[in-house]
Amino acid sequence: MENKIRPKENYNVWLPLLLSLVMVAGMFIGFKLNSDVAGPSIKKVINNNSETRSSVDEVLNFIYAKYVDQVDQEEVIEDAIKTIVDELDPHSNYIPARYLRDINDSMDGNFEGIGVEYLVYKDTIIVLEVTKDGPSDKVGLLAGDKIIAVDDSTIAGLELRNNEIIDFLKGPKGSTVSVDVLRQNKPLNFQIKRDRIDLPSVDAAYMLNDDVAYIKINRFSSTTFREYMEAFEKMVKEDNAQHIVIDLRQNPGGLLKEATNILSQIFQEKGKLLVYTEGRTSKKIEYKTTGKNFFSVDKVAVLIDEGSASGSEILAGAIQDWDRGVLVGRRTFGKGLVQEQYPLKGGSALRLTVARYYIPSGRSIQKDYSDMDIYRNDYHERILSGELMEQDSFELIDTTIYYTAKKREVFAKSGIMPDIFVPIDKFYLDADRFTINEQIPIYVFEHLNKFKSNSPQDLKTFIKTEVVTDADYDEFWVSIPETLRTDKNVHKDQIKLLIKSRLAKHFFGDDGMYKVLNNEDVSIQEALSAFENNSPLTLK
């Protein structure tokens, strides 16, 4: 996909390269803070270690001059920097110039390209969706077109990787790219002038019932607060929204200010502490509520899981520490380190951890990283321990007790625990789920016309109808690789739901896809139940 990247583990397997860029940006960018860390202090450190620096230069010069094989100097230096940075912490990161622009684009909320979503099917690039009013839409490119050549390069039948396809289609704003397509076996050529393409961070926003709004945020980019406010304003004015469910599942974080701006709309008081950051050379910085609410919000629920990190944990943590709402789901990722970005020569950058952040109760939710292997395999450890299925399976490493505003006990350094636990669907513990998910958009594409003629034309009826029958499921099952056909019925209901949600995306857009998925979502049902039962945590 080139222009619509959504980091959601449950149904993102068919979304290509930019998802990983969004995740990298969210997990490693930390928070963009203004800092005085660079400058004279860094020069002083370098000058004080001139002997060591000279030794490093000598070693490199000997390698370049005398080593038995030819050495790529740039590669050696990159590897050396990565080795040094990797020893610091999990989120300090060296970013080569070739990756930096894409990561920055994802946090800016846009990039430069032609504006299409695509699927690679049998070595052919199929246009699935064209951005409305985008460059491709303006020249007449349509969903279903098969891209066979870009400029003078034939790309059909080459088994290109997603990053290679994106390299063909992306380019500077204002540049023109020639795209050859097949439409119903008729060759067509389009001259497409590239432009800025939005990367929305709000995936879906709609009413769950008469007075509860739902907003799904996939990351905190520079446009998130604006997107959030536009979506919520519409639901307040048109649907009389009074309560809100904020879905932060699989949201890896991003820009601190975007998260605190949203929090300021949830708390009415001015000057309420939301988070503070502090480091060895970084002074303490506090982020507080503004007291400038545009719309009133009554009950609040936040959905979290093991993929909710960084900015997601700040938002959820402030809600929990002030007892402002209920957290539903599973323990969050546990990222409480703050990074700053420093430009390097040649267009690369260093993202360096300079501080920790602390939520209102005073706790840091950064999990232990003394053993980097354990840290990187944390999700696997959660599976093995049974934590994703049973809340009591998690054993606290740090038993220091902190207290919320209403004197509830909470804990630190291991992520944020939900108030209401919801186990993971067993389908997502299946090692074959990614490969199975990759087959879903292919199956839907092949049978789209059949479903279109047989499916209800309005979304409400579509949601209530068994659009994907057992016969359709059998058809899907025999279409996937034989090695995946281990137990036909074990995940049948979940796979049928994912096929139905993909169809809803084609017929009704992203909101339609989420409405289908969320109609059977246990976390949302638990949140609504807490609202209906007037759980103390949902009351102001």
Number of strands: 21
Largest sheet: 6 strands, antiparallel
Outline, from the CA principal axes?
Answer: globular
Q: Poorly predicted ranges (pLDDT <50, ≥5 residues)?
A: 1-40
Task: Report on the architecture of this protein.
With 540 residues, the chain is of the alpha+beta class. The chain has 18 helices and 21 strands. The strands form 5 sheets. Strands 3, 4, 5, 6, 7 and 8 form a 6-stranded antiparallel β-sheet that branches. The longest helix has 27 residues, at 492-518. It starts with 17 loop residues before the first helix and ends in an 8-residue tail after the last helix. Residues 1-40 have low confidence and may be disordered.
Write the layout of secondary structure elements.
Blueprint lengths: L17 H12 L10 H9 L1 H17 L6 H14 L6 E3 L1 H12 L1 E4 L2 E6 L2 E7 L4 H5 L6 E5 L2 E2 L7 H8 L6 E8 L2 E8 L1 E4 L3 E6 L4 E6 L6 H16 L3 E5 L8 H11 L3 E9 L6 E6 L9 E5 L6 H11 L4 E4 L7 E7 L5 E10 L13 H5 L1 H8 L16 E2 L5 E2 L9 E2 L11 H14 L1 H7 L4 H6 L5 H10 L12 H27 L3 H11 L8
Parallel strand pairs: 11-12, 12-15, 15-16, 16-21
Antiparallel strand pairs: 1-18, 2-9, 3-4, 4-5, 5-6, 5-7, 7-8, 10-11, 13-14, 13-18, 17-18, 19-20
Helix pairs in contact: 1-5, 8-9, 9-10, 13-17
What descriptive keywords fit this protein?
21 strands; 540 residues; 18 helices; disordered N terminus; single chain; six-stranded antiparallel beta sheet; alpha+beta
How would you concisely characterize the structure shown here?
This protein is of the alpha+beta class and 540 residues long.
